[in-house]
Amino acid sequence: MDEDQKKNKKTDNRKLIDYNCSWGTMLLLILYIGAIFFIQREVFTKQRVLSNQFAFYLLSLLLGVVIVTVLHNICKIIGAYIGGYKILYFNCFGLRIENHENKLKVKFSLSLDYLLTTSLRFVSKDEKEERNPLPIFLSGFAGDLLFIGICLLIFFLNNPQKGTLLSYYSIYVLLYGLSVTLYELLPVRQDEANDMYNIIRTHNEEDRIAYNLYYINISREMNGKDPIRHDFENYESFYRSQILYFNYLDKLYDNKLEEGLNYIKTLSEVEGYVPDNDKFLSSVELIYLRYLVGDEAEADKLFLALKGDSKSSCLKENRLSVYRTSLLLHLYVIKDKQKIQIVINNFKKLLYTIDNMDSKRVVEEKKRFLESYQKVHQAYPEDFKETLNLD
Known about the structure:
By secondary structure, the chain is α+β, with helices and mostly antiparallel strands. It has helices spanning 3-8, 22-47, 53-83, 112-115, 134-157, 165-185, 195-201, 205-222, 238-253, 257-269, 280-292, 296-304, 308-315, 323-334, 337-352, 360-379, and strands at residues 85-92, 95-100, 103-108, 118-124.
C-alpha cells in the first residue's frame, strides 16, 4: 500500500455488535430449534403423545413462532402509540402494507428482500425528531413475557404430572416460541436491526434523532416528499450513517454537486455501519455522478469493479433515485434494449403510485431520468423516441 492510500484509508472503529452477525444468529437458532426437536422426538418415542408424529413436531413449532410473533408485534404497536409513533410499514413473506399519510397501500413482491423477512416499522408522528423509541422495543419484550405466562398457565392448569396433550403442547409451543425472543434479545446486528440492537444503538440523543430521521425520510420517500437533511459531527453509527444518503439527495436536487459528493464520499467511508441492502448506494451515486459529467469509461469501470450483490442492486431499481443510474448502466454496460425498455416501464409504474408529483424529489428525479433517457435515444434513435412522456 503506498503512502497516499495509507493516508486516505479510514480506521474501522466498529465494535463487535456493529458487524452483521446474521449467519451466526441463523446457526444459533438452528441449533436451538434442533435441540428442541430432539427432545420432542425423545418424548414422542417414550410417551406416544400423538399418533401423528409430524403433527406433534410441526404444529408446536408453527404455533410457537406465530403466537409469540403476533403478541410481540401487537405489544410493539401499543408501545409505539404510547411513545408517539405510528406504523410506517409491515412486511410478511412478500406481503407489504404501507401507511401513506394514513392511507394504506398493499403490495406483494416476489423479491427475496420481502419474501424472506417479516418486519414492522414505525415513524414518529408529526415528524418530531426528538422522540424516544425505547417504549416500542420494551413493549415487544412485554409481549414475549405475556406469551411465556400464557404457555406456563396452560401447562400448570392441565395436569402436567399426567402428561396431558395440552401440557405437552404448551411447553413445546413455549420453547419454540422462545426462538423469536432469543433472536430479538441478541445484542448484535442482523440484516434488519432487532429490538435489543435498537435499544443499544438509540441510547444517546444523536442516535435517537438519526433513528427518527431515517424513518421520517423513508416515509417521505414513500410519499414522494423531499428528504430532510441533518448534519452530524460524526456518522460512525448504524442510523447516523444512513442519514448521509438523504443529505446527498438534498444537495443533488439543489444541484450542489460538490457538497453532495462530500456526503457520498463520507457514506463510502462509513459503509461498514450501513445495512447490507443499502451498501450499494454510495457506489450507485458515484457511478451516476461520473455519467453526469460525461465520464462513461470511469463510470463503467466503477460498476464492473463492484461485487455481485452490489452490481445487482445497482440494476434492480428498488427506489426512485436508482432508476436514472440503472437506465444508464443498461445502456452502456448491459447493452440490452429490451431491459432498457423494462427500466423505463417500471419507472413509469412507480410514478403512478406516488401521490405528491409536485415535490422537488419527484420533479428532479423525473428530470434526471429524462436526461438519462436522452442518451438512450441518441444511442438507439430508431428504437426509442426523442421524447418520453412521464405525465
